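User: What would this chain look like folded?
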Amino acid sequence: MIGEIFEGLFDIVLEFIPDFVWGFLFVVAGVASTVIGVMIVGESMQLGGILVIVGVLLVASVLYAWYR
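Assistant: Here's the prediction, encoded as structure tokens.
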């Protein structure tokens, strides 16, 4: 019952926010993740590398979707 209510609210929120706004949020998150990953690479190569890869993939996927 509660799950259905949250699912309905989630669907309503997703309908009201345009795709361009979601793309912009993902680009900002990707850039932030890449910057944090580059700063952390000196301390933890594995965590920094993962953050850089995730950030680059976020930005690249949004740019590809906008290009299409």
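The mean pLDDT is 90. If you want, I can go into more detail on any region.
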